[in-house]
Design brief:
With 196 residues, the chain is mostly helical. Helix 2 packs antiparallel against helix 3.
Length: 196
């Protein structure tokens, strides 16, 4: 007989009561989703790792200070913290006028795996993926969030609704409007997103 999995809120309560292993379990449980969300937005692994650590440091501190209310949406709360840190980081980068080096760190054409006859297809795929990321970035935040959670984090609409604190119909509506907006942008910019 399988024991029922302990809930996030039970782990939070254990951590607040002094069980340090409870926070480790929470981090382990949600690491993939939180890290993937950050990485998709910042598109730089090193920066994503820093923001992931900063997110859980803030979670750790907030839990210790009693700033988390037991509403059954721990992961959504963590995602909001991560999202706010990402926004703060982007603002800071803009103020410092820094340029991300990740586009210039290596020459994709100077890699063995691209030297075969499919190199043109790899380049086209890379361009299409870049265009899709740009499309997603142009969406309003609530639509962008749903697209990222659904397509990049592979969350169900029920999970998205729970994490964002909206109804399933609202999550579906946001996705619908995101797709409409993306189609409009594709038409306006006459983009070709076909991979042959």
């Amino acid at each position: 007989m399988k024991l029922p999995e302990i809930t996030d809120n039970e782990l939070v309560n254990q951590f607040v009561a002094g069980n340090q292993q409870a926070i480790e379990q929470l981090i382990k449980r949600h690491k993939r989703k939180v890290f993937t969300y950050i990485l998709i937005i910042v598109r730089n692994r090193e920066q994503a790792e820093d923001l992931f650590q900063e997110t859980f440091l803030k979670v750790f501190k907030s839990l210790q200070e009693g700033k988390y209310t037991d509403d059954g949406r721990f992961l959504g709360w963590v995602m909001r913290i991560a999202h706010n840190l990402i926004i703060d980081n982007v603002r800071k980068d803009k103020r410092l006028k820094t340029v991300s080096r990740d586009d210039y760190e290596y020459d994709i054409f100077n890699q063995r795996k691209y030297s075969d006859s499919h190199s043109e297809q790899v380049v086209v795929r890379s361009e299409v993926e870049s265009d899709v990321r740009k499309l997603v970035e142009e969406l309003p935040d609530v639509q962008k969030q749903v697209v990222i959670m659904r397509h990049f984090m592979e969350m169900s609409f029920k999970e998205i609704a729970e994490e964002t604190g909206v109804s399933i119909n609202t999550a579906l509506g946001r996705m619908r409007y995101a797709l409409i907006n993306m189609r409009r942008i594709i038409d306006e910019k006459q983009m070709n997103l076909v991979i042959e």
